[in-house]
Specification:
The protein is an alpha+beta fold and about 500 residues long. The protein has two domains: about 270 residues, Aminohydrolase, N-terminal nucleophile (Ntn) domain (Glutamine Phosphoribosylpyrophosphate, subunit 1, domain 1); about 170 residues, Rossmann fold, CATH 3.40.50. It has 19 helices and 23 strands. The structure holds guanosine-5'-monophosphate and magnesium ion. The site of magnesium ion has 5 residues, from loops. This is Amidophosphoribosyltransferase.
Length: about 500
C-alpha cells in the first residue's frame, strides 16, 4: 500500500519511509495571441530552464483547436521531446511540467500534466507542491463513486475542479481551494483559457511574465529569460490569474495572514538567476555567505564552495572575510540527479563521480568550505575526505542554512527523520562524523535576514518543524467536511 504524507501523519508524525511521496516540480504555462513562438516550443524552452526543479519526467499539454494534446515521458526534457515536440505544435496555449519524485509505481502514469475531459470540454493541469489532506479527500470522493487513475494529489484537485465546473472555472477553483490543504502552484488550461493559481500561503513560487502581448507563467523567473519574456510580478498567495481572449484577470481569494514561502527555494532549490517574491536568489545566497563570515571567522588560505549551489554563498563569504575565493572542488557537469543507481557499490561512487578535489589548489592549504545544506550528511563526509586526501591541511566546513532536522510535507524531497543527520546529532557530533576541523551552520535568524524585504513570510519547517499547515487538524477538518454541501 502506498502511504501518502497525510495518512502517515495521522498515525505517526514521523515515519522512516515518509519520503515516498515528496515531489519536486516545475511548472510552466503560456498563452500566445501572436505568432512570436509556438506555445509548445516556448513551453519546451521554459521547462528546459526549469529542469533543475525535476529530472524524472517531463510533459507538455497544448491546446490545438478544440483539443488538448499531451506528450509526456520519463527523463529530461531533451530526452522526452527528442522527436515528438512537433505533434504539439499549432496551438494557442501550452502548459508543461517537470517532476522529480521518489515514487516507485506507475511512474509515467504519474507524470504531468494531467489531461481530463469534463462537462465544459477538456482541461489540463500541472502542479508543483504537495497536498497534506489528499488521502482523506480521495477516500471521501471514492466512497462517493469517484475513480482515480493515478496516485497523484493533483488528480484529486482536477476531480474537484471538474465536479464543480458548471459554475465556471474560477468559481470551481475557489471551491477547490476551500477544501485542499497544503502547497500548490498550479498551471491549468481549458480549451480557451490559461489559469495560474498559488495556494493561500504561497508556499511554492509562481511568477507571471509577458512576451509582447502574451502572458507566461512559470515556477521561476529564469524561465522567462530563456524565451525573452519579461517578468511582471509574482502570482500572489491565494491569487487566481486568468488569461484568455478577453485579456488578463486576477481574482484574489482569501489570503492567509501567515504566508509561508519555502525558504529552501533560496537555500538550495531555485536557480540563482531567479527572483522570487521580490528577492534575488543569488543575492540571498551571497548574503548567507556574508553572514557566515561575520558569525564564524576562521583563519584560512582560501574559501571554496561545493558546486554549484553553494558557489554564491562562498563568494559572499570571501568578499566579507577578504579571504580569496578559489575552486576547491570541480564538478562533473554531466552528472545530474539522474545518477541514482540501484546498486550500493555504484551509489557509493556517486559523490566521487560528481565532485573531485582541485589538488593543486588545496594541497597544504587551510580551507573554508561552504555548502548550502546538510541533509543526510553523506556528501559532506565524502567531500572532507576527498579534500584531505588531496592534501588539505585544515577543512572548516560552514553551511549556509541551519541543520535540516525535520522532513518536508510541502514539496521538497527531504528524507525521513531517521535519515536526517541534523535530526539525531548535535553540531559537534555532526562535525565528528563529517571529519571536519570545524563545522558551523547559519542560524535561522541570520537566514531570515537574507530574505528580508520579501513580499511574504517564510516556511522554515525543515529547520524547526513549524509547518504552515497543521496537518493533523487539516485532515480532521477534511474528515468532517460534507463534500456534497461544498459542491452543491
Ligand atoms: P547530504 O547532506 O544529503 O549528503 O547532501 C547535501 C547536499 O545535497 C548539499 O550539497 C545540497 O546542495 C544538496 N541538496 C540539498 N537538498 C537537496 C535536494 O532536495 N535534492 C538533491 N539532489 N540535493 C540536495
Ligand atoms: Mg550541493
Amino acid at each position: 500500500m502506498r502511504i501518502t504524507p497525510s495518512t502517515h501523519y495521522q498515525y505517526e508524525r514521523i515515519k522512516p519511509d515518509d519520503d515516498c511521496m515528496h515531489e519536486e516540480c516545475g511548472v510552466f504555462g503560456i498563452y500566445m495571441e501572436d505568432d512570436v513562438y509556438d506555445p509548445a516550443e516556448a513551453a519546451y524552452l521554459g521547462l528546459y530552464a526549469l529542469q533543475h526543479r525535476g529530472q524524472e519526467s517531463a510533459g507538455i499539454a497544448s491546446v490545438v483547436k478544440d483539443d488538448i494534446r499531451l506528450y509526456k515521458g520519463m527523463g529530461l526534457c531533451a530526452e522526452v521531446f527528442k522527436n515528438d515536440l512537433d505533434r504539439l505544435y499549432g496551438g494557442r496555449i501550452a502548459i508543461g511540467h517537470v517532476r522529480y519524485s521518489t515514487t516507485g509505481d506507475s511512474q509515467v502514469l504519474n507524470a504531468q500534466p494531467l489531461v481530463m475531459s469534463y462537462r465544459g470540454g477538456k482541461m489540463a493541469i500541472a502542479h508543483n507542491g504537495n497536498l497534506v489532506n489528499t488521502d482523506v479527500l480521495r477516500k471521501k470522493l471514492e466512497e462517493d463513486g469517484a475513480i482515480f487513475q493515478t496516485t497523484l494529489d493533483t488528480e484529486v484537485m482536477a476531480y474537484l475542479l471538474a465536479k464543480n465546473a458548471k459554475d465556471g472555472m474560477v468559481e470551481s477553483i475557489k471551491k477547490m481551494m476551500e477544501v485542499v490543504k497544503g502547497s500548490y502552484a498550479l498551471v491549468i488550461t481549458t480549451n480557451d483559457t490559461l489559469i495560474g493559481v498559488r495556494d493561500p500561503q504561497g508556499i511554492r513560487p509562481l511568477a507571471l511574465g509577458r512576451l509582447d502581448d502574451n502572458f507566461v507563467l512559470a515556477s521561476e523567473s529564469c524561465a522567462f529569460d530563456t524565451i525573452d519574456a519579461e517578468f511582471i510580478r509574482d502570482v500572489r498567495p491565494g491569487e487566481i490569474v486568468v488569461i484568455n481572449k478577453d485579456g488578463f484577470h486576477s481574482y484574489q481569494t482569501s489570503l492567509s495572514l501567515d504566508t509561508a514561502l519555502c525558504i529552501f527555494e533560496y537555500v538550495y532549490f531555485a536557480r540563482p538567476d531567479s527572483d522570487i517574491d521580490g528577492i534575488s536568489v543569488y543575492r540571498a545566497r551571497e548574503n548567507m555567505g556574508r553572514r557566515l563570515a561575520q558569525a564564524y571567522p576562521v583563519e584560512a588560505d582560501l574559501v571554496g564552495g561545493v558546486p554549484d549551489s553553494a558557489t554564491p554563498a562562498a563568494v559572499g563569504y570571501a568578499e566579507e572575510s577578504g579571504i580569496p575565493f578559489k575552486k576547491a572542488l570541480a564538478k562533473n557537469r554531466y552528472v545530474g540527479r539522474t545518477f541514482i543507481q540501484p546498486k550500493q557499490s555504484l551509489r557509493d561512487r556517486a559523490v566521487k563521480l560528481k565532485l573531485n578535489a582541485m589538488k593543486r589548489n588545496v594541497h597544504g592549504k587551510k580551507i573554508i568550505l561552504i555548502d548550502d545544506s546538510i541533509v543526510r550528511g553523506t556528501t559532506s563526509r565524502k567531500i572532507v575526505e576527498m579534500l584531505r586526501l588531496a592534501g588539505a591541511r585544515e577543512v572548516h566546513m560552514q553551511i549556509s542554512s541551519p541543520p535540516v532536522t525535520c522532513p518536508c510535507y510541502f514539496g521538497i524531497d527531504t528524507p525521513s527523520h531517521d535519515q536526517l543527520m541534523g535530526a539525531k546529532n548535535s553540531v559537534e557530533e555532526m562535525r565528528k562524523i563529517i571529519g571536519a576541523d570545524t563545522l558551523n551552520f547559519l542560524t535561522k535568524e541570520d537566514l531570515l535576514k537574507t530574505v528580508e524585504g520579501a513580499g511574504c513570510n517564510f516556511c522554515t519547517g525543515c529547520f524547526d518543524g513549524h509547518y504552515p499547515v497543521d496537518i493533523k487538524k487539516a485532515c480532521a477538518q477534511t474528515q468532517k467536511l460534507d463534500l456534497t454541501q461544498v459542491f452543491k
